[in-house]
Amino acid sequence: MRKSEQAAQARRELDRKFEEAHLDPVVVPPRSGWIRAIRGALSMSQASLAARLSISAPAVSKLELAELTGGITLAKLAEVATALDCSLVYVLVPNATIEGTVRSEARRIAASTLGYASRTMTLEAQDVGLDRQREALDRLSQELIDRGDLWRDPLRGWPAPRSIP
């Protein structure tokens, strides 16, 4: 199996997993944060959680604040999860399907590449029709996907900057 086929299969498999996971209810954490929300639902005081973690009650307050501000480490969050009889699940949830993200990036690069060629041809009175432009865009997009190097800056050899909508 070619590398591009393996990547396409991996995209389909991950997209299927995310679709089946139904993560919508947990993507947005509670306003108070997961630690405080679960601790409260368990009717566990900060002092009790502190004892389970072998830290002081004010340190639990700092942990809860650190979670809200993004300053808690995954290791510490895993430790707190264990103390709350929970499992820490670490996941990056794509904003769109992975396949959609790859196709979108390929189209962006292809459009940028072909846009330059199209402008040059128009200046030289060699303009191509809209249908042929779409075909060329689709063909170049697929070639970029098959090559598997969408995320590299060809001039520098490292990931290209990407504007985030």
Provide a descriptive summary of the structure in words.
With 165 residues, this protein is mainly α. Among the domains are: 26-83, 434 Repressor (Amino-terminal Domain); 98-147, no CATH class. Helices cover 64% and strands 0% of the residues. It has eight helices and no strands. It has helices at 3-21, 24-27, 34-41, 46-53, 57-69, 74-83, 98-123, 130-147. Helix 4 (46-53) crosses helix 5 and helix 7 (98-123) packs across helix 8. The longest helix has 26 residues, at 98-123. The radius of gyration is 24 Å and the shape is elongated. The two termini are 35 Å apart. The model has no long low-confidence stretch (mean pLDDT 85).
Number of helices: 8
Structural class: mainly alpha
Count of strand segments = 0
Average pLDDT confidence is: 85
Secondary structure layout plus pairing:
Blueprint lengths: L2 H19 L2 H4 L6 H8 L4 H8 L3 H13 L4 H10 L14 H26 L6 H18 L18
Helix pairs in contact: 4-5, 7-8
